[in-house]
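Let's sit down with a protein and look at its sequence and fold side by side. We need material for that, and I hope you will provide a protein of your own picking. Once you have written the record down, we can walk along the chain together.

***
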Amino acid sequence: MNSYMLLMPIVMTLGLSGQDIKIEHQRGFLKSEFIYSLAERPTPQCHASTLAETERGILVAWFGGTEERHPDVGIWTSLNDGVGWSTPVEVANGVQQDGRFPCWNPVLYQAPSGPLLLFYKVGPNPREWWGMLMTSMDAGQTWSEPVRLPDGIWGPIKNKPLQLPGALLCGTSSEEDGWEVYFQITGDLGKTWTSIGPINNKDEFAAIQPTLFLHIEKKDTTLIALTRTKQGCIAEVRSKDMGKKWSPMKCTKLPNPDSGIDGVSLADGRHLLVYNHTQKGRTPLNVALSKNSKKWTNMLRLEDARGEYSYPAVIQSSDGLVHITYTWKRQTIKYVLLDPNDL
């Protein structure tokens, strides 16, 4: 695939320019801040944040330690109760009977009328890791003992699950023998599982870490999953039967530098995506909107300086505002608040 040919149409479509536009001057922006300052960081490095709205406020989790893959990497959390961010605390580690292993990719999900779920991975590397699950009945103040998920079940691999009638749909993936996308469904909040996939041909698309959208048009309901790939593009699959069968994977017009993405279907029916608009490196970091998930329009540029700005997570809270977190140079987690009504 010609990278130049792929990238040119999207630059024209999204109207990007080389002009440096500060985020505070962009429409929809309300606030941005570090969850903790560089001087107060609890670990040398951090990565892969996730967030959920709880009854106590917005809870954020990430993995942190000496560096990615180091055995001392654990899962950390911080709460914003409307006043500010609490001091980060480590809530999970990879201590096992045969030693300590690094933790990876936490995913928070607040179940309706149920516990707060914390999925994460433990293992020496992404080819050998396994899924773990903890729950909290008090919005993250205390946690249950971690439970290992069944072999071959990883739960949501990076991005939040999607609540369907009577079931939780988790976008997941395997890196054991090439990159493959799966969807795993639980009807009892992680006790039992059904796995679907792989849904891609790994020789055509090396794809992982799907993010899920629910598109409703008239009486037609479609599930859409966008994925990270090694092909220089964000890829797409669709399902018309609530996730049981999926269309063949294909490239969208959105570029991807082999880095994580995340998105959310807004209450007004639009879809919002946070991603690196490039085929190389992990800057810039952009926000795009779509009415139908086929044509995306650039709305905001969150970061465009040198450095790594990656692995975004995004939710829409009950008040309609959009909350975004992402890795800031592996040194801290940055938080951005948007008003989608102004986009």
Q: What stands out?
A: The radius of gyration is 19 Å. Residues 26-342 form a domain with the Neuraminidase fold (CATH 2.120.10.10).
